[in-house]
Amino acid sequence: MCGIIAVTGSDDTVEVLLDGLAMLEYRGYDSAGVALVAGGPVPSVWRARAANGTRSLEDLAKAVESAPPGARSGIGHTRWATHGRPTETNAHPHVDCTGRIALVHNGIIENHTELSAALEDAGHVLESETDTEVLAHLIEDELATDRTAGLVVAVRRALARVRGAFALAVVDTADPDLVVAARRVSPLVIGRLGEAVLLASDIPALLARTRDFFVLDDDQVAELRPGSIVVTTLDGAPVPLVARTVDWDLDAARKDGYEDFMSKEMHQQPAAVADTLRDRVLPDGRLALDEMRLSDDELRAVDKVFIVACGSSYHAGLAAKYAIEHWARLPVEIDIASEFRYRDPVLDAHTLVIGVSQSGETVDTLQALREARRWNAKVLVISNVVDSSMAREADAVLYTRAGPEIGVAATKTHLAQMTALVVLALYLAQLRGTLYPEETVQLLAAMGELPAKVAVALDRGGDVAAVARSVAASPSFIFIGRHVGYPVALEGALKLKELSYLRAEGFPAGELKHGPIALVEPGTVVIGIATRTRLWEKMMANVAEVRSRGATVVLVANDGDEETARQADAVLWVPPTGPLFAPIVDVVPLQQLAYTLARFHGLDVDRPRNLAKVVTVE
Ligand code: F6R
Q1: 571 with 557: CB under 8 angstroms?
Q2: Calculated CA dihedral for residues 343, 346, 352, 354, nearest 10 degrees
């Protein structure tokens, strides 16, 4: 995600900012920028975007060499684009119309569309496509309305007008030593080094300089000056400062105290699902897909859908096939992307081809989508990377908002993909009128509960470890599921084989007796997805088939479902949810199982052998 760094009262403002940005680089970014306040009428602002593999931080450092000496305060930012493409204009810091203030922001301003319209009506000129820029103009507005109000008051008043999540740092040429920070949801920490006061979105950015931190809580504002930190609530009530000392090394800090990036990223899954849902459900219950460049009429004219993807993205697509067919009543074909263009698929202008790819760069999927365009099909991409190659070439893009994923195995991006795809399925259903309005309302309510249910599933990590211990000696695993449990079984098997290098295969449970059941002998570990989705009874009959042949059965089951538990040697419990949402919750213990088994075998879960995060060769 984006990174923030700010400083006041330092003799090395530029160095502190650039070092801090370099420390935040590991999070992934597509552009970066800094603003310095030295006592002149406007801040000096530099921005650079990473293009074609160049590192924007290096460009930025070169540009900032020309900065006039004597900066008294400064802010810096690494941006991971969500609203607005990764261009230099969209990079932070953003400034107001007068050039008096500059600010950097992490998070999402949910009501930015209505706020920008109101600001433009009032004569403000907004230059970027970001949700952030409205904040600079709102603060400008407040400073102009009440000339006695200083920056802190103006920031408080401006924030009262926004909805959403924010961590921000603002500098003001009228008060060159001042940095104002505020947060809601997105984190901020303050550090002190002699007279210098430092601010960052996460601890690694400051770790080289200090180990003593003050953590800003939700709805708090900090007024930072050389040698002084004053924290208040958004309502102006004073907040006592409580210092916290960390003894992490840099690597541990980057992982936020988790053992590895994979476990950090698994724990970010509730936020990845919530962020991917954010803004998409309008207050009246309708769905809005803001990055769609296809008109509703074009989508209504679609009579067939193809989904193309690889690996975990393919499994997300397979789960979506059930949702699109059931809710939107559209026929869906799904293809492994590397096979698609060689099989002469039948496509035309009424076909919608959905490419699913967290990176947006996987060459097999990119080429499949190019093939689709050759046949005039409409192309929609689900990607986690704004302006990725696939996103640039598509007719429409629906971005997942999982933030950068550093672990090679897809976890939070996979959950975010499944979330975006159910949103899309409901959108298509809405356009085609295939669901009753009250059904949609119920489904939206269930969708809103997904982040909390994913969090509950994650909390069961200790139970998963006990199950993992009980099957740790097995050299091979069979995963089975039916209906939407089938893609979950495939994903469980993929996670296990790529992380632990053990043999793991996923099958549709009904297919077992057509061959795979020959693999089952006493002690074979069979992992079944037995949550209460549509084919639960049939699934349990398949479970009975393997049990009677002596398999050790582990079942993913809904909380309190003792009937299912009685058929299992061990249970991975998950909260129940609507049947077509179930893969988003049910896959979580399988990720944890794969993770735990890999750790038992002493393997590097972040960098499994032979695998790459972005696969750009065919
Ligand atoms: C599995 C995994 C891979 C990717 C696949 C597609 O954990 O990470 O199977 O899912 O390489 O990558 P994207 O989604 O970037 O197209």
Answers
A1: yes
A2: -10
Domains of the chain from N-terminus onward:
3-254 (3.60.20.10), 264-448 (3.40.50.10490), 457-600 (3.40.50.10490)
- What span, in angstroms and rounded, lies between the C-alpha atoms of 585 and 520? 28
Q: Which residue has the tokens 């769905």?
A: 287
Q: Provide the CB-side half-sphere exposure for 269 (13 A, CA).
A: 30
What's the confidence (pLDDT) of residue 236?
94
Q: Give the distance (Å) from ligand 1 centre to CA of residue 312.
A: 5
Ligand 1: list residues with CB < 6 Å. Answer: 310-313, 357-359, 362, 365, 409-410, 494, 498, 615
Report CA dihedral (595, 600, 605, 607) to the nearest 10 degrees.
Answer: -150
**CA 548, CA 179: separation in Å to the nearest integer?**
69
Mean pLDDT in the chain?
93
Structure confidence at residue 403 as a pLDDT band (50, 70, 90): confident
List the catalytic residues. 2, 613
CB 452 within 8 A of CB 273: no
Reply yes or no on whether the pLDDT at 95 is more than 80.
yes
**Spacing, Cα 311 to ligand 1 middle (Å):** 5
Q: How many alpha carbons lie under 13 Å from residue 468 in its C-beta half-sphere? A: 21
Helices and strands: H and E segment counts in the chain: 23, 24
Name the E strands within 212-289: 212-215, 220-225, 228-233, 243-245
For residue 54, how many other CB atoms are within 10 A of its CB? 11
Which pLDDT value is given to residue 51? 58
CA distance 310 to 363: 10
Average pLDDT (594-618) is 89
Of 17-21, 403-407, 454-458, 515-519, least confident by mean pLDDT is: 403-407
